[in-house]
Amino acid sequence: MATDLSAPLVRDAEPTPIRVASVPSSHVYVRHLSPPGDATDGVRRLPDPVPSGAAPQSRWWPPAMLEADWVHAHHDDFDVFHIHFGFDARTPQQLTDLVDALGAHGKPLVLTVHDLRNPHHAGREEHDAQLDVLVPAAQALITLTPGAAAQIRHRWGRRAQVIGHPHVVELDDMARWRAMRTRHVPFRIGLHVKSLRASMDPAAVLPALVRAADEIGDAVVQVDGHRDVLETAGARYDRRLADQVRSYGDRIDLRVHDYFDDQELWAYLASLDVSVLPYRFGTHSGWLEACRDLETQVIAPTCGYYAEQGPVHSYVMDEERWDEDSLVEAVHRAHRSRPSHVTVAERERQRYETALAHRTLYDTLLA
């Protein structure tokens, strides 16, 4: 696609190759750490080893690279080891063995701290124990927001470089969906309960959203959920939530379906005026970034560092606090606003800058 970049942000046409064992390499966040199009930063991320017995949709889970034996067998294949996701599949002792294996072969460890609290865990103890192994051991730390970096400095006395989350939607898709973008009538408020992560509390926020829609008048609350949660035969069927959403009848637009593929998810997000994140705890959000890509406003809780990722309408919610009025007011603000969104060109430039920042960090470690 066309670009308005005034100067190349990747320094050399053919920089010296650096081989990175990235855990994982196929995740969309990691794929977008490389420059777009035909540009090159010289970073070669190893393909994810396919775990034995993994389902086709689980190309990298559980991550075989996080096994100490894998490092011993493949240490000649990479220069830098970079962990993003997946270490929740390993015990603290297994992670200690991994760190020892990397040290034995002189391989630097980079850790990007995406989550300071695992959104899939009801408690924080396990994730804290895993971070207590990896954060002190890493030769370099990255995180996505200044607030997360401050928490890392407070908890471990370590400096983390802040590199913002790159786009999630592909640049060409982003431009295509934006060209079709309209303000919807009625104003459409989206709440997606997905498959109910431990961090989510949609039952708390739904009454506030219905109240806000009633006050606005020309608005509708669209509730989406997966069949495994909202249908009785589902593996994670939640009777309380299913009964609650159905109790609203025609006052909400309820849609129960299977998992969206990428294009279905982009179509869904682009159909909303605002998407509500119903989280009691968390740190950062790729969902939020996809909304930014598609010009969909975001209402986000005060837990975590969502407001530092990009413009959001905040409401008060965390593990101790919940203020219904603040969410109602956030919906009203979203309805009144005419936001200015990040442009496709800005997302493209960020992609180059992100690639250069990672390449520079790897160069520093290997020097």
Description:
- This is Glycosyltransferase.
- This protein has 367 residues and is α/β, with parallel strands linked by helices.
- It has two domains: 18-168 and 347-366, 3-Layer(aba) Sandwich (Rossmann fold); 171-293 and 296-336, Rossmann fold (3-Layer(aba) Sandwich), CATH 3.40.50.
- It contains 14 helices and twelve strands.
- The strands form two sheets. Strands 2-1-3-4-5-6 form a six-stranded parallel β-sheet, with helices on both faces. Strands 9-8-7-10-11-12 form a six-stranded parallel β-sheet, with helices on both faces.
- Helix 3 (92-104) links the parallel strand 3 and strand 4 (109-113).
**Which superfamily, in CATH terms, is the homologous superfamily of the largest domain?**
Glycogen Phosphorylase B
Total domain count: 2
Structural class: alpha/beta
Instruction: Note the total helix count.
Output: 14
- Extract low-pLDDT stretches: 1-8
Q: Give, in spatial order, the strands making up the sheet with the most strands.
A: 2-1-3-4-5-6
Query: What string, H for helix and E for strand, traces the elements in order?
Result: EHEHEHEHEHEHEHEHHEHEHEHEHH
Name the average pLDDT.
Answer: 94
Biggest pleated-sheet summary = 6 strands, parallel
Protein name: Glycosyltransferase
